[in-house]
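Translate sequence into structure tokens.
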Amino acid sequence: MANMDKVLIKETTLINIANTIRSKTGKTSKFLPNEMINEILNIGGDWSVFGYKGFPDWLIKEYNDTLEFSKINEFSSSDLGKYARTLLIYDNKNMLYESRSNLFKNYNTLREIKNINIAAKQSGTNMSSAFYEKTELIKVENMINNGNYKCTDVSSMFYGCYSLISAKNINLNNVTNVFSMFYNCTGLKEVTLFNTNSLKSLNMMFQNCISLVTIDFFDISAADNLYAMFNNCQKLENVPVFNIPNASIVNSMFSNCYNLTDQSLDNILQMCITGTKVGNKKLTEVGINHTHFYPASRIQALPHYQDFLNAGWTIGY
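Result follows.
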């Protein structure tokens, strides 16, 4: 295997594989690891998608097994994607050396990503489009950015991952660009982000996330571009009070968000009040321009409407 000293498989995984082979073949003998491949091939299953060293679909589904990569000296994307449906990367800072955009471009079998470190040890700060259109990806959990060269660009990282439901514990310290990070993640329902105070470009970050109902607070106070950040999040109901003192581009931020609660609308008014660098101080600028869903009378009844006016803003319709 290029650029890797070895690939380790957990002992429990080998036992599970052997037990499954015995249950499917009726054999009672023990198997050496190098004998298991032929046994698996004889049983059949979707072998090709995992490459010649992979395991067939029935085995992955039954045990959700994970191969552990060990003693990795240099990262090679051609070595990944064909070994397991659940990618579990340990000590990733020792393995990602170069600019890594489109890192997993050719591997569409990823279902789950855990404990991934997006920092690099020697060079490379770009993870843009790393999981672009991984349409089988369902879950991402525990992403960190710890290393000598912290990643700054995760734009389009999960672009088009329409099966992605959950992205939890995503640490974005030192990241500045999250443009289109979750664009067209139409199944996304849960996302938790932290250490976000360095983010600058958040344009279209959640555009077309049509299943997203609630977005928890995360710090965007350093952001300058919020264009279409939540555009077409049609089920979005609950948004926090964002603080946007450095934002100059906010147009269409909440366009086509038809289900915002009164509390969320009032939170958006409070957000606007902090947007001192916004040139066109109209509520329509941030995308609240649906007279059918948000008539002026509804906006005028919100608790912070007068403060909104006093800060130089108007409804705009």
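Note: The helical segments are 11-25, 33-43, 57-63, 262-274, 296-300, 305-310.
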